[in-house]
Design brief:
The chain is an all-alpha fold and 188 residues long. It has helices at 3-7, 15-18, 24-37, 43-57, 60-75, 82-86, 89-104, 109-125, 177-187.
């Protein structure tokens, strides 16, 4: 189900690793939990609960096999969906529930994206979502700099390569390399 990738984001996952050894019923339980519990602000709590659930249903060797991948992915502290950042918590929660219900009813990924975009568009038009407007006024000229801006560039370090102990032979010459290398040795 692609819905979780764009409506939840990468902050709870990795989905494929968490679900690797789960039965279809267990996968469904994890998804239901994530969609019902996640409100856009509590990713750490939801992720901890998902990890605990997965740990409790897997055999020790299965858990041990996915643990390194989980640690590596979760250490990256990926961001949640842009919609979780854009919408107020209650609106985001309503959107997540709508997407989950639509996905359960068999909506395509394209339909789900359209549902989300329409929802966000209506919320922005109605003024429920604060819109950041860029300042179009000219800059204040009363502030004059007395010194020019100085740019500092980090010192570049150039590593010199060591000369190879044998002459470079292009790969096209490898077929008869013994003869060519022997001829190079005799001329040097």
């Amino acid at each position: 189900m692609m819905a979780s990738t764009f409506i939840i984001g990468g902050c709870i996952g990795p989905k494929s690793v968490l679900e690797r050894y789960l039965t279809p019923e267990q996968k469904s339980e994890v998804r239901k939990y994530v969609y019902s519990a996640f409100d856009g602000t509590n990713s750490d709590q939801v992720l901890a609960n998902v990890n605990t659930y997965v740990h409790s249903v897997l055999r020790p060797e299965q858990w041990d096999s996915i643990l390194p991948e989980l640690k590596m992915y979760q250490a990256q502290k990926r961001e949640c969906s842009v919609y979780a950042q854009l919408l107020p918590t209650l609106m985001y929660k309503q959107l997540v529930n709508s997407v989950f219900k639509a996905a359960e009813l068999g909506a395509s990924d394209q339909d789900l994206k359209r549902l989300v975009e329409d929802y966000v568009d209506r919320a922005m038009r109605s003024g429920l979502v604060p819109q950041r407007k860029n300042s179009v006024s000219p800059p204040d000229t009363s502030m004059v700099r007395s010194k020019p801006k100085v740019r500092h560039f980090p010192q570049r370090i150039i590593y010199e390569r060591q000369r190879p102990s044998h002459p470079y032979v292009p790969s096209s010459l490898w077929q008869n390399s013994h003869n060519r290398i022997d001829s190079l040795k005799t001329t040097s």
